[in-house]
Amino acid sequence: MMPAGTPHIAAIYASLDVGxxxxxxxxxxxxxxxARCLCDRAVITRLxxxxxxxxxxxREVPMRRTLDAIADFVALAQVQGARQIAAVGTxxxxxxxxxxxxxxxxxxxxxxxxxxxxxEEEARLSxxxxxxxxxWRAYAGLIVIDVGxxxxxxxxxxxxxxxxxxxxxxxxxxxxLTERYFKSDPPTIAQLAAANQVVAEEFDRMALNPxxxxxxxxxxxxxxxNLASMDLxxxxxxxxxxxxxxxADALEDLTARLASRTIQERKQIPGLDPARADVILxxxxxxxQALAHLGSAALDVSTRGLRWGVxxxxxxxxxx
Length: 320
Fold this sequence. Notes:
This protein is globular. It is 41% helix and 21% strand. The strands form 2 sheets. A 6-stranded mixed beta sheet has the order 8-7-6-9-11-10, with helices on both faces. The longest helix has 20 residues, at 60-79. The protein is α/β, with parallel strands linked by helices. It folds into 2 domains: 12-119 and 307-315, 2-Layer Sandwich (Nucleotidyltransferase, domain 5); 137-303, Nucleotidyltransferase, domain 5 (2-Layer Sandwich), CATH 3.30.420.150. α1 (60-79) packs parallel to α3 and α5 (174-181) crosses α6. It has 12 helices and 11 strands.
């Protein structure tokens, strides 16, 4: 924090998260050790769409959609006055056989380099985004659940520390689970059972320890944010969703509601981004199974995920 009366000199930086399902941009003023959000945007581009059926190769149409979004966001960050843009990629780019082609096209068109994160680094940065947040700094222990499009991370930190104690990952996310198991609209009982079984088996292999006293579970990512918005029965500004507590029972009700509706019917649900209507059920199943395996009756919602961890790590490394 800056002392009272100190002139404000902006220190504006941006982070870009290129995920399997969406591209997200955050621009923040980090002057004086604070992190004041100036701009926060997300667009669903489905970079990983069709990868499973085509030899883990990025398809041309999703690549073009994602390139367009990155170009728009780079221009927006520059208009906002960002000194630097830190861009990272996650599951789809980790797995894509032709990722080098895509990364080259980003450099040539947008003038930035995307750092493709390992699963371990993605987990560290997602955890940092929560640990450095004023909502959860005071908790002794934190467990962060990050449900992405292509993978899901469960990260537990050391007490009162930004260091990670354990990080476990399943190679299933909202998009991947949907593409593998939900062939009908709405899915059949058999398809739902198969999806729940495979997610449960993945979490069983983790041998997760039940949540202990003094430890708070926090969820990050578009799946969690949309479920929180649905829980509040309508679209809200991100700052109103940030810190919302989603009960496990309410999540079960939302999951059952989603499972019984077609994609077109889901698009009418208040609070749900229509562009996520086809994959939100997969994300809800993963999140519900994660809470059950952790023995947690609820989780807090963070709208400041990986991209905030990138900002803290790259441009504000010292604790404020």
